[in-house]
Amino acid sequence: MPTSASRKKPQRRKAEEFFYLDQEDSRQDSGLHEPILEDGDQDAAHAVSREVMARLGLSDAEIEALVGPKSGERAFQG
């Protein structure tokens, strides 16, 4: 019966990056990522962030302090 000491560790795969080479042959990716980030859905991103923070146990006031009020709501006055 195998034990944890006798099991082979899974080999890690090298992460593959999405990049391009600039004029100096340096790897770059900001030109690829920035347009995606700029066009992102901020409301959806904040909603997901709020859900994760709530699952972690943060209060509504703590969440609001970190990401601001929900769309269409006034800032917390406390």
Describe the protein in words.
With 78 residues, the protein is mainly alpha-helical. The protein has a domain at 38-69. It is 40% helix and 5% strand. It is built from 3 helices and 2 strands; from the N terminus they run E-E-H-H-H. The protein has helices at residues 30-38, 42-55, 60-67; strands at residues 20-21, 27-28. It has a two-stranded antiparallel sheet with strand order 1-2. Strand 1 (20-21) and strand 2 (27-28) form a beta hairpin. The radius of gyration is 21 Å and the shape is flat. The model has no long low-confidence stretch (mean pLDDT 78).
Overall body shape: flat
* Cα Rg: 21 Å
Count of beta strands: 2
Beta-strand percentage? 5-15%
Helix content: 25-40%
The mean pLDDT is 78
Instruction: Catalogue the unreliable spans.
Output: none
Helices, by number, come to 3
Distance between the termini: 61 Å
Order of helices and strands: EEHHH
Instruction: Please give the order of strands in the largest beta sheet.
Output: 1-2
Q: Would you spell out the secondary-structure blueprint of this structure?
A:
Blueprint: E1 20-21, E2 27-28, H1 30-38, H2 42-55, H3 60-67
Antiparallel strand pairs: 1-2
